Amino acid sequence: MPDNTLDAQASAGGDHGNTSRNLPLGAAWITAAGACAACVGLLVQLASHHANDVMIIFTCYAVGLVIVTPLVLVKGLGYLKTPHPRLQVLRAMAGFIYFGSLFVAFRTIPLVDGILLRSTAPIWVPILLLIFWKQSMSPRLWWAIGLGFIGVALVLQPGSKHGRSAIRSPLEAASPLR
């Protein structure tokens, strides 16, 4: 019987047949992505005093469109084709809600706390897979998730003034009743 846990799938490689791996290049790209996200957070904090959230989000998506357009012009529109269009639309909607919440958080909490909360996505993914797709998880993964949440709590210091607002602000921003 095959092991269908997330832990077993991760240890199986998950490279989908690609046997060449360049871990230093991957680490460089992920570091660059984190640096870009921190720069966007800083720009959002600066812009939030002069523009509303919708305009900031629109500008971010417009910049993304400007970056992707030359690629589409060179490779053609088929380059963006996906075998799962519904999931792509769901991802786009979730991304829009995520960015809206993140930008409100960046305006109301310290940048470092916002970046930390943004970086908790890998902790939430297995939990969401469990909830929505009934994906089982190994005890090792539960321990890792628990340690991740403890680490976030230690860094955020929930008892402090900023720690309480760092936890509350993204949740308030995501609420449709705000």
Question: Features of this protein?
Answer:
178 residues; mainly alpha; disordered C terminus
Question: Quick gist of this model?
Answer:
The protein is mainly α. The protein is built from eight helices and no strands. Helix 3 (53-75) packs across helix 4 (85-108), helix 4 runs antiparallel to helix 5 and helix 4 (85-108) runs antiparallel to helix 8.
Would you kindly provide a written description of the structure presented here, covering whatever features stand out?
The chain has one domain (24-174). It is mainly alpha-helical. It has helices at 6-11, 23-47, 53-75, 85-108, 111-118, 121-133, 139-156, 161-174. The protein contains eight helices and no strands.
Task: Give the arrangement of secondary structure elements.
Layout: H1 6-11, H2 23-47, H3 53-75, H4 85-108, H5 111-118, H6 121-133, H7 139-156, H8 161-174
Helix pairs in contact: 2-4, 2-5, 3-4, 4-5, 4-8
- Inertia-based shape: globular
Structural class: mainly alpha
Radius of gyration: 19 Å
Strand content of the residues, in percent? under 5%
Quick one: biggest sheet? none
Mean pLDDT across all residues, rounded?
Answer: 76
Our measurement of the CA-to-CA distance between the termini, rounded to an integer number of angstroms, reads 49 Å
Let me know the number of strands: 0
Are there runs of 5+ residues with pLDDT below 50, and where? 4-17, 171-178
With helices defined by DSSP (H or I, 4 residues minimum), what is the helix count?
A: 8
What is the succession of H and E elements?
A: HHHHHHHH
Q: How helix-rich are the residues, as a percent range? A: over 70%
What is the number of independent domains? 1
